Amino acid sequence: MQRNLIFVILVVIIALVMVNILHRDDNYNLKLEELKHNYALKAVPSVDHSKLPALQKEFKTPQEVTEACLSCHTETHKEVMASSHWNWERASYVEGRGISSAGKKNVMNNFCIGTNSNQQSCAKCHIGYGMTSSQFDFNNARNVDCMVCHDNSEEYLKGASMAGYPDRTVNLENVAQSVGSPRKSNCGSCHSFGGGGNNVKHGDLDVALNSCSRDVDVHMGANGMNMECVACHTAKNHNIIGKLYSVSSDNTNRATCEQCHTSTPHLREVLNRHGSRIACQTCHIPQYAKVNSTKMSWKWSDAGKLKDGKPYEEEDSLGNHNYMSIKGSFVWERNVKPDYIWFNGTADHYLLGDSIQSIPVKMNTLNGSYNDRHSKIIPVKIHVGDQIYDKVYNRLVQPKLYGDAEGDSAFWKDFNWEKAVAAGMKTSGLKYSGQYGFVETVMYWPVNHMVSPKEQSVSCAECHTRDNGRLAKLTGFYLPGRDRNVVQDSIGIWAFFLTLAAVMGHALIRIFVLIRRNKYEKQIINYDDDKPTE
Amino acid sequence: MRKVYIYKGFERFWHWTQASLIMFLAVTGFEVHGSYSIFGFEKATEYHRVASWMLIGLLIFAIFWHLTTGEWRQYIPTTKQLKEQIQFYISGIFKGEHHPTQKSELSKLNPLQRLVYLGFKIILIPLTTTSGILYMLYKTIDENNLIVIEDYPLASIAFWHTMGAILLMIFLVVHVYMTTTGKTPTSNINAMITGYEELEENENENIQNHETK
Known about the structure:
The complex is a heterodimer.
Chain A: H1 2-22, H2 30-40, H3 62-72, H4 76-80, H5 84-87, E1 90-94, E2 98-102, H6 119-122, H7 147-150, H8 172-177, H9 184-191, H10 229-232, E3 235-236, E4 239-240, H11 258-261, H12 269-274, H13 280-284, E5 294-299, E6 313-315, E7 321-324, E8 328-333, E9 339-343, E10 347-349, E11 361-362, E12 364-366, E13 376-390, E14 395-396, H14 411-414, H15 417-428, E15 436-446, H16 486-527
Parallel strand pairs in A: 5-13, 11-15
Antiparallel strand pairs in A: 1-2, 3-4, 5-8, 6-7, 7-8, 9-13, 10-12, 13-14, 13-15
Chain B: E1 2-5, H1 9-32, H2 41-69, H3 82-90, H4 111-137, E2 140-141, E3 147-148, H5 154-178, H6 187-194, E4 196-199, H7 203-212
Antiparallel strand pairs in B: 1-4, 2-3
Helix pairs in contact in B: 1-2, 1-5, 4-5
């Protein structure tokens, strides 16, 4: 009776335990609900700029708008003029270089190569007016472009190759009266179009983010939280947090997932634990360039081919240019699985004038390794290509690409590398030997946006798998499910099966002996057959 | 011959629960190791973790039971008749000889069993559970946002844990086979299920019993 009772109790306990193990409801994540609630409340502006008398006038130049802004926001230009948006450089300590200023002024890339001698065109993405050359006056507050970031009418547009001035069609009065907190379209007007077209550079900053679904970006999705860029990239005193390591170097003032989600956002402890060495983005951005394609490769060495003496363009099946006479040949990709690297938040860059240390030339070096405990695995877009360099001085060179007209040495007009490089290097103040060639390059772009809904995040087995996992290329550390001690495994398997064989051999001999003895015994019984049976 | 209640209730509960947990841990563990795919990596790790906590709980109860009942004395190693016992498994068993040692409730284990089970209890299980706990808590973030256990390389934690697992599997094979070497092939397993086993009369034992009476 008592035994039966114990048995029943045990069965019940085991059943309850199994139910708890096997049945898993999605728990309610209060942290996340609070965040959603906080960001659901959108700030209402305290000022309607269309009612301000200072803005009720016809503006002849954009500088007049800036003056009108400064008539109320009297000190704000100081904040803006301290930013890298304005200065195109930022000083930081770089291992091996010391204090070094890096930014669009002097960092080279493997897209449109560099800004020097091309400012007239590149300054379309400078928050100022009139940057036609490196002689731009960075101390003139009248040239600060407030509108490009603060226009809420979506009318403002910087002109093509107008040194940062707005397009002539823009109604400045209209724009000035409708300024407010920056929206996705403001940030995206530059950050989505780096490299000369939508999503060319980043891969995760497509203009499609301006109105996308949750599947594309869980934060910005119009059917989700519909958050603006500045919700995360907050900007106290116009010092915007967040940076990208295509131009930035140090591990400060970064925008992080943890600033809202904390370092323990998961209900499952084992997932939080991953955060010690794996960035949030690694699992939560399974792919980038989800809507439009991004450039994965750019070969400048193919540039300059002409048809009937004229430049031409070719398109791939998705309608992306895969050849342009002015730029070379490209490879585009959509829905790209990121590559993964170790990164500790510090980087170095190939600055104009640096010597080539290795081939392919690393346009930026993201520091980090498994052995550095501050490093985490992050997803990156790796952009490869080739570009022009000086064979004698062994360094990348700055060609003059943009020009107003034929005959002023610009490659995009004259298609002559000799002249373009000579002009570009002269403007940059660097020697050029006259001997040029093309060298392979590689550039690393951390992927931070296009965060997927949690259901779509990278699953465990995509990394924890023997072959072809997402982290297959990252070696030098032990990843459960992927790595094993091969010697131990082989010895183990041999030992196990040899034991099994030995045991079976033992059993067979026993059975064999038993059968033989039985026969023998039966024979004895047969001899006694005539006796009466017992 | 006499029928003896040799394995107590807790002893049998402990034995079979431990056996099933170890086998379940092996199935899920080698999946985590990457040897095959049954539940999928995610489920396998989860099941493995839950089962490991259950095993740890069981081990605590078992240790308590061994200490309080004095059953731990069963595992005191001896070399007396060890050679004969090994000899029996190598040759005697084929000739139909009897076990050189006799089983009784006071001495359930033969000298070879004593040695092997002692090794199981003080080397194999501690090795596997310790490495397992280190594995489980590796890179845990504590309340102060500090990371626990990270200087010791995971590769060697995993090495020792896998080592334990392999040895346990070899133990399992031999152990299961050895149960068939009793009076009949199933008499030992039956005893571990019902608790009762038919044991031969032992003269020394009888004398002892008489003395205690």
